[in-house]
Amino acid sequence: MRYLVALNEHRHFGRAALACHITQPALSNALRALEGEFGVLIVKRGRTFAGLTAEGEAVFATAQRMLQEQELLRQRLNNEAAQPSGRLRLASVPTAMPILSRFAIALQMRHPGIMPTVISMSSLEIETALDSMSLDLALGYTDRTRRVRNVSLAVWPQCTERYYLVQRIDEPVPDPGTKGWRLGPPMPWAEAGALPLCLLTPDMHNRAIVDQAFEAAGVLVTPAMETNSIHTLARSVGAGALASVLPGAALELLRHDASFEARPLVEPLLQTPLGFMTHNSDRVSRALQAAIELMQDEAWLRELPPMTEFEQPA
Fold first, then answer.
1. Which of 2, 78, 265, 307 has a CA 20 to 30 Å removed from the CA of 61?
2. What mean pLDDT do residues 166-177 have?
């Protein structure tokens, strides 16, 4: 069952075997044995992994529940209430990774027995992973997720994302407030739309948010470059030829670099809520409960990256 979950996650036989610390033939043989036990075809096979069959999806869903129950039992038997431990799988939309990274570090420092795994995912990937219980906790766009069908989630608002036009400047002057990049005067979205821009790819929800803001400002933008990496966005600006639109939390990537200027985007003033989400369940591991308690702690909210506005815990 664990091998099946790994294969579905990595979408590749070799990478799934590596993650399970076994050889690829051993993984393939185990999955064939599982198919023989149930008498159905579970994995679509070709030259590469082609997905799960309808029967395989049913087996996968059961495997997820079995592994979750196993982890809950393990934590109940081994943990002391004051010392939660175990693995926690955390994910964030790319633009909020600086926030999730800080959260994971704060969680691990408060509870050394917890081992967070931090990954970047698109909004759709997060919703799918939460629904299948392959993620414990995710940071994403709460307004979008609440509109998604058939996904029952518990949501904790954290902060409001605001947007900035970021570009390289010729005469770097460190801003004492940021200890790096300079905070410039506000810029209308329509003015920003006339610049050569590097933006996230259209499959990213953040790109939809940015496109809607440009549309509200009456401009149709064709970017000079697209990427699904927030780090590539920052580096494209560092090359000097392009500008980009970054949310406040992502400005953390430019810390200590005085060669950038960030200008708040206005007309319209765009504010997007971000929050933590979990699968809505009354069976929560002690490690996840410890994470929920941390996210509701106002002391944690004050540790958010500069240029983000936190919300009071619900």
1. 78
2. 71
Residue 11 domain boundaries: 1-78
Q: Is 202 exposed, middle or buried (0-12, 13-18, 19+ CB in 10 A)?
A: exposed
Is the whole-model pTM more than 0.90? Answer: no
| CATH number reported for the structural domain that contains residue 70 in this entry | 1.10.10.10
How many other C-beta atoms are found inside a 10 Å radius of the C-beta of residue 46?
7
* 166 and 266 part of one domain: yes
Q: Which residues contact 179 (CB under 8 A, 6 or more apart)?
A: 255, 256
- Tell me how many domains the chain contains: 2
**Residue 13, token pair as written in the block:** 């036989």
The confidence band for 313, taking pLDDT boundaries of 50, 70 and 90, is: very low
The lowest-confidence range among 111-125, 166-180, 190-204 is: 166-180
* Residues 6+ away with beta carbon under 8 Å from 128: none
The pLDDT value given to residue 314: 39
Give a yes or no: residue 304 inside a domain. no
Domain boundary (51, 78, 105) is at 78
Q: What pLDDT does residue 232 have?
A: 86
Summary count for the chain: helices (H), strands (E): 12, 14
Statement to judge: residues 167 and 260 lie in one domain: yes
User: Phi then psi for 69, rounded to 5 degrees?
Assistant: -65, -40
pLDDT of 179 reads 59
For residues 117 and 94, what is the distance between their CA atoms, to the nearest angstrom? 15
Q: Is the peptide bond before 268 cis (omega within 30 degrees of 0)?
A: yes
Is the separation of the CB atoms in 158 and 311 below 8 Å?
yes
185 found inside a domain: yes
